[in-house]
Amino acid sequence: LNRRLAEFGTTIFAEMSALALRTGSINLGQGFPDTDGPEEVREAAVRALRDGRGNQYPPGPGVPELRTAVAAHQERRYGLSYDPDTEVLVTAGATEAIAAALLALVEPGDEVVALEPYYDSYAACIAMAGGTRVPVTLRPHEGSFRLDLDELRAAVTDRTRLLLINTPHNPTGTVLTRAELTAIAELAVERDLLVVTDEVYEHLVFDEAEHLPLATFPGMRERTVTIGSAGKTFSFTGWKVGWITAAPALVSAVRSAKQFLTYVSSGPFQYAVAEALALPDSYFAAFREDMRAKRDLLSAGLAEAGFEVFRPAGTYFVTTDIRPLGESDGFAFCRALPERAGVVAIPNAVFYDHREAGAPFVRFAFCKRTDVLDEAVARLKRLA
Ligand code: PMP
Ligand code: GLN
């Protein structure tokens, strides 16, 4: 393994899912739903397969039906207008979108400022691109993890090439506010930075929180690559259909990298996702309501079990602090948890460069059936 990748080893998600299987534990580690997305969307995939749509290489940028549907979705939800031919690119999940964007836009030696904790592929992709990651740590403040705007500003240097943003944020569940996003946008414009924004949990925001795409802020549309995922929005993580929307020059750059990563992927599923994106608002509302109820169930259960809970405003993850349980090392806690309670969770420290800043935090996924969450809570209560 080369020096760029040597520090990364096996992704925590594979490691923890294997641990769950091996120990027969309830897997609240890796974030994937245990209920598949809508039947009609699965039927659409079957129809595409049967009708011979997408069984051979789809077009490099994605099938026109899906690019048109992505553009229509951005217009309908956010009033953002993108040309399906030049401003939309279909990718093999958001994972490839992140990789291709960083490989295309980062020069060796460039600095990439990312919110910490960060989704694990960010660090690896920045490294593969030869860039240097500059983490800005979200810190606990009155029940949620917040961005310190002065720290963000201080992290930008003459070598900074781009800001890598994620809202709603995995693993903390933070949804960046209008004020925070305004400040990020102003900084990007002032320092002439590109922004890659991972908005795969755009539909999972709860209560009064609102998802505001960075591309809607003044001066941002031209400098922002926005990433979405059918895995997250329609509960088909195995299909690996994602996309970016951006200005033509940025899409063209990302495509240059993407064509040599997978070239194309997921032919028949692209047609099905095109239909999914056109589902009525009631689908998105019901999906959000289902996850809100699950968030409440797991958050309350974890609090009763003795964890300090950071009730998430978005995503399907809840971050907890294990110190009230008399623990301080999330790694050790998560390694022992299958044995002690038959539950698997993720130590947030894996998402940090400043490991000590993440040490006491542990993430649980709640995109699981209610009976599964109930059983997990019952088991975790025995810890105390
Ligand atoms: N970004 C974030 C923040 C995620 O949580 C995930 C999925 N865990 C991804 C990207 C990857 O998405 P996909 O499965 O579409 O590749
Ligand atoms: N995004 C999911 C999570 O955060 C996992 C994705 C993966 O396994 N690569 O849990």
From TrEMBL:
InterPro entries documented for this protein: Aminotransferase_I/II_large (IPR004839), Kynurenine-oxoglutarate_AT (IPR051326), PyrdxlP-dep_Trfase (IPR015424), PyrdxlP-dep_Trfase_major (IPR015421), PyrdxlP-dep_Trfase_small (IPR015422)
Major site of localization recorded for this protein: cytoplasm
GO biological process, any: amino acid biosynthetic process
SUPFAM superfamilies with a match to the protein in the record: PLP-dependent transferases
Catalytic activity: N-succinyl-(2S,6S)-2,6-diaminopimelate + 2-oxoglutarate = (S)-2-succinylamino-6-oxoheptanedioate + L-glutamate
GO molecular function terms noted in the UniProt entry: kynurenine-oxoglutarate transaminase activity; pyridoxal phosphate binding; succinyldiaminopimelate transaminase activity
Residue ranges of every copy of the Aminotransferase class I/classII large domain listed in the record: 26-380
GO cellular component, one term: cytoplasm
Cofactor field: pyridoxal 5'-phosphate
EC class name: transferase
Entry keyword set: Amino-acid biosynthesis, Aminotransferase, Cytoplasm, Pyridoxal phosphate, Transferase
Pathway as given in its UniProt record: Amino-acid biosynthesis; L-lysine biosynthesis via DAP pathway; LL-2,6-diaminopimelate from (S)-tetrahydrodipicolinate (succinylase route): step 2/3
Subcellular location: Cytoplasm
Residue stretches in coiled coil: none
One Pfam family of this chain: Aminotran_1_2
E.C. numbers: 2.6.1.17
Family named by the database record: Belongs to the class-III pyridoxal-phosphate-dependent aminotransferase family.
Assembly, per entry: Homodimer.
Functional summary from the UniProt entry: Involved in the lysine biosynthetic pathways. It catalyzes the transfer of an amino group from L-glutamate to N-succinyl-2-l-amino-6-oxoheptanedioate (N-succinyl-2-l-amino-6-ketopimelate) in a PLP-dependent reaction, yielding as products N-succinyl-l-2,6-diaminoheptanedioate (N-succinyl-diaminopimelate) and 2-oxoglutarate.
PANTHER family xref list: FI04487P
Designated name of the protein: Probable N-succinyldiaminopimelate aminotransferase DapC
Source organism per UniProt: Streptomyces sviceus (strain ATCC 29083 / DSM 924 / JCM 4929 / NBRC 13980 / NCIMB 11184 / NRRL 5439 / UC 5370)
Lineage: Bacteria, Bacillati, Actinomycetota, Actinomycetes, Kitasatosporales
